[in-house]
Amino acid sequence: MTSFTRDRPSTARRLGLGVLLAALCAFFVAAPTAAFAHDELIGSSPADGDVVDASPTSIDLRFSAEPLAGDGATEVLVIDPSGREVQDGDPVLDRNGVIQNISGAEEPGTYRVIWRIVSSDGHPISGEVLFSVDEPSEPAPVPTASEAGDAGDESGAFDATPLWVVGGLIVVGLGGALVAVLVARARRANGGV
């Protein structure tokens, strides 16, 4: 009669499995952190606070990542010193930037550029850039939401955070179950010790 002996996993093999499990858990805990970091405005032309000699024909906003395209995903309002909107047409996505043409912006003073985009992680972000033509002045007041086309509506944004949380919990649960099985096997192999 042939008896089969089962080789116990070596200490190195168990250690390697433990390191692999720890690395997987660390990945799923650290990976969502990048999803929580929203994109941000990294520059504009004209820049915030600039005083220019002549009115620009467009505003160029640059972000840390490429904004998402889609109906209503990108909005730019350009308000002249008297409170008139002077943006011309829809904003145009250009890699990690948004270009908004303007016309009729001859009035000297401070212009307010109010922008809203959907960042690469699916979250809407917004902000404002002020620049002046000839000399700074008191900027016109910010238009109300109804005047600005309800730029604060975030209903169309997709939030992937719950998926990361659920996925992370599943991985941690499976990892815990795997460790429990391995520990139980090791104890059985050692006679319950």
Ordered list of secondary-structure elements with their pairings:
Blueprint: H1 11-36, E1 41-45, E2 51-52, E3 58-63, E4 75-79, E5 92-94, E6 97-101, E7 109-118, E8 124-133, H2 161-189
Parallel strand pairs: 2-8
Antiparallel strand pairs: 1-3, 3-6, 4-7, 5-6, 7-8
Helix pairs in contact: 1-2
Task: Describe it.
With 193 residues, this protein is an alpha+beta fold. It folds into 2 domains: 12-36 and 161-189; 41-133, Immunoglobulin-like (Sandwich). It is 28% helix and 24% strand. It is built from 2 helices and 8 strands. The chain has helices spanning 11-36, 161-189, and strands at residues 41-45, 51-52, 58-63, 75-79, 92-94, 97-101, 109-118, 124-133. The chain has a 4-stranded antiparallel beta sheet with strand order 1-3-6-5, with no helix packed on it. A 4-stranded mixed beta sheet has the order 2-8-7-4, with no helix packed on it. The longest helix is centred in the last third of the chain and has 29 residues, at 161-189. The radius of gyration is 28 Å and the shape is rod-shaped. The chain starts with 10 loop residues before the first helix and ends with a helix. Residues 148-156 have low confidence and may be disordered.
